[in-house]
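Exercise 7b. Backbone tokens:
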């Protein structure tokens, strides 16, 4: 019997949509794609390159601001920014747009001058270096995770004890979300999206990586704290 990749319970329903296998957990409500339906890394990389996101795109810049501004508002007063404040962007993409935006924030005084910025992407940075930081941001990335525990353990390496992890994704509603509704949900149509989380699911898997729930900032962002 299949085990849920999020909560590890064995209460799973199988279903198929357009020749893609999905598994729904009756315990945590998470939905994950079967390994047999994963696409290869070259296909994944081509898909990411297709997006061509830049800060010159006003709509995309606003999307980034809508994610990061509530996070910074919640986190920054919890840190002694006079000593050191660091932010790590996990899954920064072909062009590290969120990091570029944060440099703008440093230049205009929204972030302290001593803020240190780091980033990593599986496909687009040359070295796998995780720098433990006050804040790790992970925007539109967790839905791509194929090895859930391994990936969340990597996220944990990017956060100091007491630091924060901000995750942005389109979460599965925890109530009254049927397979029929899922079949109509646009978010599943990206072939690189393989993990679909409820808030409960993301809390369960992040707990194993050393995080506890801190706050849900909106319907697309959850803030966790490293224990």
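Sequence design result:
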């Amino acid at each position: 019997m299949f085990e849920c990749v999020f909560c590890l319970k064995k209460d799973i329903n199988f279903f198929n949509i357009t020749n893609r296998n999905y598994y729904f957990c009756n315990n945590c409500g998470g939905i994950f794609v079967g390994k047999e339906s994963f696409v290869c890394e070259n296909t994944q990389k081509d898909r990411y390159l297709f997006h061509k996101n830049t800060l010159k795109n006003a709509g995309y810049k606003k999307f980034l601001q809508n994610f990061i501004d509530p996070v910074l508002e919640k986190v920054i007063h919890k840190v002694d920014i006079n000593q050191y404040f660091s932010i790590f962007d996990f899954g920064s993409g072909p062009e590290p747009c969120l990091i570029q935006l944060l440099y703008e924030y440093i230049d205009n005084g929204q972030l302290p001058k001593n803020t240190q910025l780091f980033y990593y992407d599986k496909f687009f940075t040359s070295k796998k270096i995780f720098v433990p930081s006050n804040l790790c941001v992970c925007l539109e990335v967790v839905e791509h995770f194929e090895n859930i525990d391994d990936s969340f353990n990597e996220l944990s390496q990017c956060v100091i004890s007491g630091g924060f992890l901000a995750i942005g994704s389109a979460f599965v509603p925890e109530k009254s979300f049927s397979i029929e509704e899922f079949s109509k949900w646009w978010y599943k149509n990206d072939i690189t999206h393989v993990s679909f989380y409820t808030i409960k699911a993301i809390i369960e898997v992040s707990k194993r990586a050393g995080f506890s729930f801190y706050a849900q900032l909106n319907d697309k962002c959850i803030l966790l704290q490293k224990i």
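Instructor comment: The mean pLDDT is 93. The helical segments are 41-51, 58-75, 97-107, 148-157, 179-183, 199-208.
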